[in-house]
Design goal:
By secondary structure, the chain is α+β, with helices and mostly antiparallel strands. The protein is built from 3 helices and 5 strands. It is elongated, with a radius of gyration of 14 Å.
Length: 108
């Protein structure tokens, strides 16, 4: 199940529409892919996508589920480029750390 997180931590009134068809919602709202980042650690990889549009909540960061690490598929609705840069850095670090932990558990 898709988790939707607003930067201001307020409930997202469009959550049901977003969760029903994420890619369709992004297209209808005018978002286009802004950047794609592949995080790799110990032979595992995850893609983090950032979408952009002009208007409110101009950035959306999306990462897929990573069941081995307990991560659900999530999107973050972000108010500006600074918030996007900060969250992207944290997401990279979190995903790489989870991948490393899981890989080490599998090796032992």
């Amino acid at each position: 199940m898709l988790q939707i997180v607003r930067y201001d931590r307020q409930p997202e009134p469009r959550a049901e529409d977003i969760a029903a068809d994420l890619m369709g919602w992004l297209a209808r709202e005018g978002y286009t892919i802004f950047s794609t980042l592949v995080v790799q650690a110990l032979g595992q990889a995850m893609t983090i996508d950032v979408y952009h549009r002009d208007g409110p909540d101009p950035y959306v960061l999306h990462h897929p589920a990573f069941p081995l690490g307990g991560l659900r598929e999530t999107i973050y609705l972000l108010p500006d480029g600074d918030a996007m840069d900060e969250l992207l850095l944290r997401a990279q670090q979190m995903v790489a750390a989870l991948m490393t932990i899981i890989a080490r558990r599998q090796m032992s």
